[in-house]
Amino acid sequence: MPRDNMASLIQRVARQARITFRSPAGPAFGENLHRLQQLLDEVRAEDLHLAPRGPSAAAAAPGGGPPWAGVVPPVSYMHICETENFSMGVFLLRSGACIPLHDHPGMNGMLKVLYGTLRIACMDTLPAGAAAAPPPPAAGSGPCLRALFRSRQHYTPASPPCLLSPHTDNLHQIDAVDGPAAFLDILAPPYDPQHGRDCHYYRLLEGPPAGAEPPALPREVWLMETPQAADFWCGGEPYPGPRVCL
Q: In angstroms, rounded to a whole number, what is the distance separating the alpha carbons of residues 131 and 146?
């Protein structure tokens, strides 16, 4: 596709997202979602006037910690647009940053890497009473839930979008691998605590390793709900790309 009209591309993504998530239970949802996925797959960093952060963003700090630790947010967000049906923006992760394991209650989502490499772990919650064994002793006193650890994959700008639905891959953890990374994010509908769509964080509870190799996926696991980690917070940055009008 010609890339001489960058504003048109991100504008079309937003318009298609509005069409898609206006009726997520409608008969045309699957077709509209596929069209949105195709458009999102075309987006590149330069379309949004973004460039990968320089070597200084990936350099190690004295003592071996990340250069941003305790100084600037590990993750920043660039707001593009939001309606009652969806939100769209860009997340920027510094080298070594992690968006901890969290959920998206009743929400659909799409994630497209713009630069860098992300490792994304995806999980599904399992129905209450599905547990075959009690939580491990490390669970402590926090609320626990049983989940299916479905996948852990690397995503780059060449990868198709990572998708989540209210029931599939709804919990995920996102890690920047070997340097800074950025991704375009669509959530539908947006987070809204007043309507039961608040973000909850979790910690994976694992027993002693059975061997040198990590357990195969998919597998059932226990998760414990936790407060937001003290070393994770998200700052804001201005969006430099083409304006989106809805």
A: 6
Residue for token pair 């599904």: 124
> pTM for this one?
0.86
Which whole-number Å values give the CA distances from 45 to 92, 168, 245, in the listed order? 11, 27, 20
Q: What is the CATH number of the domain that holds 81?
A: 2.60.120.10
Residue 173, domain member (yes or no): yes
DSSP labels, 158-175? TSPPEEE-SSSS-EEEEE
pLDDT one-digit tens code per residue, 9-36: 999 999 999 999 998 888 999 999 999 9
* Whole-number Å distance between alpha carbons of 56 and 68: 10
Sign of the Cα pseudo-torsion (194, 197, 201, 202, in order) = positive
If phi over 0 gives left and psi between -120 and 50 gives alpha, with beta otherwise, what is residue 225?
beta
Residue in the block written with tokens 């409608």: 26
Phi, psi of 66 (to 5 degrees): -65, 150
Greatest Cα pair distance, the chain, in angstroms, is 58
Instruction: Decide if pLDDT at 191 tops 90.
Output: yes
Strand duo 75-82 + 234-236: pairing? parallel
99 within a domain of the structure (yes/no): yes
CB 115 within 8 A of CB 50: yes
Name the domain count of the chain.
Answer: 1
Rounded-to-integer distance, Cα 109 and Cα 114, Å:
16
With contact defined as beta carbons under 8 Å apart, do 154 and 118 qualify?
A: yes
